[in-house]
Amino acid sequence: NLSTPRPKSGKTKTIKYNKEKPLTNELKYFLSRLEYKKIKIADGDSAVEVIRILEQATNSLNNRNR
Asked: CA–CA separation, 48 vs 4, rounded Å?
């Protein structure tokens, strides 16, 4: 059951991530751009970051039961 945390013995690995609140950051960015400034929707760098985080999460889940 994936919803129940279970202790793991042995070596663990910490995944580094940005601890800021994503929705708060989006709102701050939007408000800063209200006066006719161009809004950047997304770029390649942000896409790569999302994929990197998803890969790490997937690997962590896959290795969890080994």
From this structure: 30
